[in-house]
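hiii so my PI (J.) wants the whole complex modelled not just the main chain, which honestly fair. so below is everything: two entries, each one labled with what it is. i double checked the lines twice but i was tired so who knows lol
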Amino acid sequence: MKYIYTIGIILALSSHSLVYAQKQIKVTGVVTSGSSSSNETISGVSISLGGKAIGSSDRYGKFTITVPDNGEVTFKSLGYKTVAVAVNNKTYIAVTLQATTQMLNEAKVTSGYQTKNRALSTGSAVTISGKDIQGVPASDIMSLLQGKVAGLNIQNTSGAPGVRGSVTIRGISNISVSGDGNAAFLTPTSPLYVIDGVPVDDNANFSYGFQQAGPGVSPASQIPPEDVENITVLKDAAATALYGSRGAYGVILITTKRGNSKVPVVRYNGSAFLSTVPQLRTVIGGQDERLLRIDQIMKYDTSYYHALDMIANTPFLSDRYNPYYNNSTDWQSYFYKPTYNQTHNLNVSGGDVKFNYKVALGIYDETGVQKNTGYSRYNLNMNMIYNPNPRFKLEAQLNNSIQRQRMGSGNGLFNTGVAAAADASSLLPAPTLFSSVNSALSALKTEDDNKVLITTATVNLSYDFFKNFKASSYLNYNGQSGTKDNFTPAALNNNQALYYTYNDRATTIYNRNQLSYVFSFKEDGEDAHNFSLFGFSELRASAFKSDAMKNDRVVNDQLQGPIVKQTGFASSKGGTLEYNDLRTVAFAGQFSYNYKQRYVLDLNYRADGLSTNGPNAGYIKNPAIAVKWNIEKERFMEDATWLDYGSVRLSYGSNISPNGNIYYTYGKYYGSDRYNNNPTVVTDLNYLPNLSLQPSKATTYNAGVDFSLFSNRFTLSMDSYYKQNDNIFQDKVISSTNSFNKIASTEISNVNYGWEFQVTGRPLAPTSPFKWTMSGSFAINREILAALPDGLREKIVSTGDDGQDIYQRLGINSLSNFLFNTKGVYATNGQVPVDPVTGLPYRVGGNDPLNYFKGGDPIFTDLDGNYVLDNNDRVIAGNSQPAITGGLFSLLQYKKWSVEVNASFTLKRDVLNNTLAYQFSRFGNPTTMGSIVPLSMIDYWKQDGDIATYGNPMDFVRNGRINPFRYNQTLFQEDGSYLKLNSIKVYYNFDQNLTRRYGMNRMSMNFSAANLGYITRYSGANPETVSALGRDFGGNYPLPKLFSLGLNIEF
Amino acid sequence: MKFKKITYLLAASTLVLSLSSCEKFLNVTPIDALSGNNFWKTKKDVEGYTNGIYLKLKKKFGETMLIPSLDMRGNYVKVVENLDSDGSGPINNLISNNMTSVMNGTTTYDNRLKDNMNWKAWYDVIAASNILYYETGRLDASDFSETDRKQYQAEAVFTRNLSYLYLCRMFGDVIYYTDAYNSKALPREDQVEVMKKCIADMQTVKDDLPIRQSSSNMIGVRPTRASAIALLMHLNMWAAAWDTESKEGYYAAVLSLAEEMATYQDYSLLTISTENTKRIFKGRSAENLFGVLQDFNYGETFSDYANYSFFFSHYPYRGKEDKTKSFLSYDKKYIDKLFPASNADLRRSTWFENISAESADFQFKKFINTYSKGSGTNITMYSDDSAIIFRLPDALLLAAEAAAELNNEATAHRYLNQVRQAAGAPDILSTGLTLKNDIFAERCRELIGEGQYYFDLVRTKRVIDTEFAKTVMSVGDFNRGAWTWPLIITAEERGANPNLTGNTFWN
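here's the output for the full assembly
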């Protein structure tokens, strides 16, 4: 972006124009920003007259120039529309510059390491200004983009501080599921992040945290929102073509702020915020819990005396005077509490075109609403640009951050420990070291400390050999080290403390050398046929290694080091968990042509060599082609002033993402036992070397329309896409006659297609004192499974004991739930169907009368008609992935006030309410301790003839057989659609005349509230904090409501 | 402008340099284990990998009950002393060919016998051999000559065909492939076809193997041309048993192989004596063609139950001082018929004690290399014998059998009596069917306890004959595959290979 701007300035400076002799007058004035939510003045605006620079605005946005009385002065600043003002003998000029957004024709769009103006950009890209995401404290900037970009689906699946939710662009790109039951998770396919021109991988192993081994911190979270200039989301292959390897899941470009004021500017942003505990589960406390259970046993046990016996043999029911059982403990209150937190950012920047710098210092500290959890981040980001002459430019950047995360006894994403503890019976005494609820203590007493240190250094050199021929080179180093220390006191681990320590190190060296050349053929004196050539080579080496030690015989709680005497060799565990070394080489080029900017053609080509590719796979070639027609540049549209711009885009292209590691490709060898007194080498039989291992490949077709009407009053962007993901990676079990267990296979394909709409409207007239901007995004995504390994047409993926299997069938969505179909509750015994052949009623399993269905049992569809409920009676039901996502945004400004409202929505998504299923199942065994929910809240069957939603949970004798509240039934599959009020922000700008008295250039205050609430039909706590597979269970970390008060000061 | 030229030159050369070093750059050397792209570089790698294949063979022969079970199934043996861990039942089932019970059983011995019903270990050898063949074919190293390449490839062919021989002899039709890194799910192939392919495969590279092993510790342990000949003879004999239409061809091939073997000077029969017995079954004598080594001195030992003596011997060859009973014994009627007291035969006196006791006093002394653990009264004796897969008498008797089948009785007598003379037994000069039966009996005598009995019984179809088999199979059962071992197919395997079918009779 800088580059073109710089060239523009230089060209403007060097052109010789005549200045006519007129009367020179002195003009003063101020430049303000017309579109920021705070109506600030702008410093460093370059002021030119007839193409010649004559001055710039000072730090307060003020200027004094000497100009001819009838001259026309041009005001130009990066990020704002250029404005020309006729002097007309005025001595004071107040200029308002409108900020450019991506919707405006003059906006620059960066993609493929190049910046072009909107008309020449052929890809599907959306840019969000940094201003739009500020004001709400967040440990991870991505969560702030929710609902802002059509096609970017962000679900804040966990409210744990520092844990990032799921981010997908245009549907899921991998269908592999690992883990069991509620912890089953979908292999994440996060987009590639390119931070200031340097790609940062987010899909690296262990960066997700919930793999338990180490701290999980997103690389994108090291940039505080306050330091973000803008974020661009690239969606189609034309935009991502040149990102080649790892561009397959979309690309997100993050540009941080630069200095652009001659006078050093010091900015401070800070806020204090309150995280509050959202609505938790309602449970029965104390005596009520006991009485409910006794009542249940008396009513439903097989006989009166058996029931009496059962109660008598269950101490917590019968021994009510025992102080141990005579409590009413609100367990949840021990784990959740509101917290006060803060964030501070200090930004110093200055300089001009020749030399500028920025230093940003940030602190973010958040204590989780769940005890013993939290996240803090300290960062120091610096950059510097040296541009002594138009041909040479040096840019250097240094980003450092320290991030610290505490996850209690959980693993970041889930906290099953707390879930189990909060589920303890209210009859038990509150947690102390002597109470028996270990999970509670472990959540409170486990010391968990995770630290991540990230250092990034980038140097970027560019040089113009001759006009329009430019060479540049990027060199980047990224070092990251993570540690995890987890200490479990002796009281929680059979009287011997447990110490787990982990450390990892990841380094990346990245180099890109690029050449670009632009030339034009003139027609009628103007540039008509414009060509540009751009090529680069890219080299990347990244290594990752993680080691861990576990000492489960620590002598006492005071000694937390791992170096203590072990009782035996088996009790000490340690070693390297993971080692990964990935290298890639790429060559890429782009040829662009346009005719008077009317017709644009882009041809991209990229070849990638990966160290993980099999020797038979070779270099992977990715071509892309895109065309664009800018209607407003046509001669016949010259008179259509109502149209600011209008264009049609078409693109096709492909991208890849590396798969596996070197062992999957070449096999792993190691020395084994000796034979005949000679050393032996054998192959690791876990993975059959796959010499043709291919990277995953995404091929996208995209058609788009953009237009803007009535001087930017209404803009619309529409995209329709078809994206095919091939070579999706998944382990495949192979025949044991091949000796190896598995092969890294790439035989799965899926297809995403959909439509995206991005609208902005400014309904009020420009003259109105109110300024109102509304925008909305709306994306429809359909996902379809296209190929399975070995030509299979369907497959059932088991995800553990709860039976919530996933059905994968070609032609429908990849992740369908496979469930028993529940169609209500039998009101009476008479409703239960009877097998006309045997005369036996519908039943589960054998002929025992207890197996027969009765009134109060759920009606499961008997799909195979054999009058026995078995696994063949399950149906394909629902889709765990959302079909429609989007958001709404409104900004209303009036004088010094502005109010911003953000909302996002997710529609057509099925969520499995496992929490509810679990709560029902708690009634199945009244002699086991545990919290229970008040039955009064539930519409359940109580007596013959009741028409109810839920069956009878009280009949515990038969519950074990009928299993009426089995997890895998459609009863617990609910509509997970929601509309969420993400945030409300209110800004107030203090009068600059007032603030200046105190030496402050600007000052504004803001109040914001985030995660305010949901409009949803979902009956559970929150339809968003569910796993990527749409499973809601008690282990999810609730999403806190945030209220913050912020202060922005500029000196 | 000079400066411009220099910068162009620099830019161009950087580009060229970066291009040429790409391959190197992309070759990653991990630090936590050896990856395939960094292996297969030197002769040492090949040798290590080859040893790895023998280690896999050792796992099959030395860590399972394979050889003892092959000699017990359907044989005239009986459990005379309760085996530890409830072993008597499964062993009795094995003797009476009651394999379904074994397959459904879960005791220690059921599980040990079930190792035979899982063929993966054989495919481990086959897959590794295929990889060895493929990778040595591509290897380019200064210390690796063309002769080396051929020899290692021939060894790979030997080990994979040895596995196919056992697979076919145990399961009939099997899955056959020779591709390295095979991942396809293949169906089973007719065993005659498999045998034909194996014969052709082994025949092509047989002469790439050395005539003799130069190093003494390789004798009998690493294959030579004679080992390949023995393997080929077995392959041919097994093929002849099923491809009855053209069996003469296979017999003729066996005879010509035997003639070739006779030209090699390094192999000779050892006269039966206690010393020679020890030498033979240690595995490195002039009689040994191929075996899997057990050597306590190297710290390379077998599982107890992989040794035949574990079942048929007691102290001082097996167990502690107080182990005075053998678990199993041969039936008196059978063993007396095999080794009549009236006939001179060094084997009867050297290899047995209380030969016709038919009780726990029976002592088998063929496998008497031992090592001991413990001290004082706590000394426990273990067998230190190798698993002998091919040895010269076996090959000679196959030749005799082939000659008899071709009615070339003079040749048959010559081969048969070579073996008998080494045992100090009188020559046999019978003819016709008697001669064939005599040759079979001689194989039973000479190779007793070496894992050949059941294969011979099936191969010669004597298993359906009441005169030769204790557990007689009906012709119908035999044809439906009652002679095979059941093949256990896991659910996972069914998913991974839908083409795979079980053994008709058992599964």
